[in-house]
Structures are given as C-alpha cells and as structure tokens.
Amino acid sequence: MPGLFITLEGADGAGKTTQGALLAQAFRALQYPVLETREPGGTPVGEAARRVLLDPSLTGMAPMAEVFLYAAARAQLIREVILPALAAGTVVICDRFTDSTLAYQGYGRGLDMDRLQSINHWATEGLAPDLTLLLDIDSDEGLSRARRKGADRMEMETAAFHQKVRHGFLELAAKETSRIRVIPAGRDIFEVHRQVINAVREKVPELVCSQEG
Ligand SMILES: Nc1ncnc2c1ncn2[C@@H]1O[C@H](COP(=O)(O)OP(=O)(O)O)[C@@H](O)[C@H]1O
Ligand SMILES: [Mg+2]
User: Fold this and answer.
1) 40 C-alpha to center of ligand 2: Å?
2) Are residues 93 and 36 in contact, defined by beta-carbon separation less than 8 angstroms?
3) I want to staple 10 with a disulfide (CB 3.0 to 4.6 A). Which of 14, 54, 75, 105 is the partner?
4) Which Pfam families does the entry mention (predicted)?
5) Within the chain, how many helices (H) and strands (E) appear?
C-alpha cells in the first residue's frame, strides 16, 4: 500500500503546527498510520541544522549557506524518515518542505529559482508531495501570532521580506494548482481545520473533521 505525502506550508504563525496535529488526529481516527514531522528537523542531523538556522545570534549567515543547511536537513529527512515511512504505507504530514525554500530563499531573498529547484530535487531524490496545504495569512497577523512564542532568526526579518514570501507562496500555488491548495488561515482554528479536511478529502474521501478542533 503506498503512503500519502502531505506538506503544510505558509508563514510562521499561519497555523501549520496546529493544523498538522488536527489533521493527524483525523487520520488516526480512521486507523491510518500517521507520521508527523517537520523541516528543518525531524532527525538528529536535521534538528542540529535547525538550531543553527534559527539561532538569532548567527546574524551573518550567507544566503547560500542557509540554502545548503536547509537542503542538508531535507536530504537527511527524506532518507531517514519520509521514504521509509511512505514505503510502509504511512501518511506523512510534514510541516514545511520544498516550497518554503522557493518562497523564502527564492522570492524572499532573491536567489536563482532554477538553482533552488535543482537543489530541492537533489535533496528530495525527486520526491514531491501528493498534496500541499498552503495556509495563507496576512503577514502582520502571522507574525503577531508567531511572536507570542518569541522571535527566531527568520522571524526577525523585515515586514517587506515577509510580504515577498507570502506573495511567493501564492505564486507557487497558482503555478501548481493540482498539488497546492490555498487555505485562508486567518479564521478560527476549527474553521481552518474544516477547510483542510475538505482539501484532503480529494485524496481520502472518508476523512472527517477531528472533534478536538
Ligand atoms: N486559526 C487560528 N486563530 C488564532 N490563533 C491561532 C490559529 N491557529 C494557530 N493559532 C495560534 O497561533 C500560534 C502559531 O500557530 P502555529 O500552529 O504554531 O503556527 P506555525 O506552525 O505555522 O508557525 C500558536 O500560538 C497557535 O495556538
Ligand atoms: Mg510551527
């Protein structure tokens, strides 16, 4: 039985972690095997890269160094976690994936898109998500939600940067309409969950909303 690979994308504070947990619960309620993971991270190597990437004291990081640290975490996650889980028939729900590289390092920092695509392809061994849920939120609202837990290195970027990232995610969604579903994420948690479930029902029609939303 092949697994199902779902990624959650969007700004910090959009609700990816919250919605990923609710979605996982909805699958578990139907006895599907589910694995929740995140980028950068999800493996010991990846979590080590994450600490470097999000460390607010590391202010001088070169943009390409950032790209390769994310790619290193992704390559490890693919090998160690995602490919084996999918081969075992698991539903894999990943908080951020390749679209974040294109939105943040491509649209946000202005790095060459073709190069980023090829680095992504290399790191993922060519694996693309079956479905990507883009949680779209006003940049200021996302930031104010995220800042309740304290700003990290990426969250310290300017408002203009975050607006470019948001626009970038939406352009990616417009280019890949069959893979990426845009979910307005400014509403209350259960309403967003309802829309997430609606989108995932295209792949798993029997899915119902989690009661704990
Ligand atoms: N729809 C929502 N409405 C209001 N607050 C929310 C909503 N979704 C998430 N939050 C809160 O906003 C903060 C960021 O949510 P989180 O799921 O961690 O976002 P992300 O993982 O995208 O950064 C958390 O404190 C969370 O409880
Ligand atoms: Mg999160």
Assistant:
1) 11
2) yes
3) 14
4) Thymidylate_kin
5) 9, 5
User: What residues contact 81, with CB distance under 8 A and at least 6 apart?
Assistant: 35, 37, 42, 43, 92
Q: Which fold has domain 4-200?
A: Rossmann fold (3.40.50)
**Which residues lie with the beta carbon below 6 Å from any ligand 1 atom?**
10, 12-18, 145-146, 148, 188-189, 192
Q: State in Å: Cα 13 to ligand 2 middle.
A: 7
| Ligand 1, atom nearest to 191 Cα | 1
Could you say which ligand is closest to the alpha carbon of residue 190?
1
What are the pLDDT tens digits along the chain (213 aa)? 579 999 999 999 999 999 999 999 999 999 999 999 999 999 999 999 999 998 989 989 999 999 999 999 999 999 999 999 999 999 999 999 999 999 999 999 999 999 999 999 999 999 999 999 999 999 889 888 888 876 666 667 888 999 999 999 999 999 999 999 999 999 999 999 999 999 999 999 999 999 754
The annotation places the binding site for ATP at 10-17
Q: Report the C-alpha gap between 21 and 25 in whole angstroms.
A: 6
Return d(Cα 80, Cα 70) in angstroms, integer. 15
Say how many residues make up the chain.
213
Considering every ligand atom shown, identify the ligand nearest to the alpha carbon of residue 9 and give its number. Answer: 1
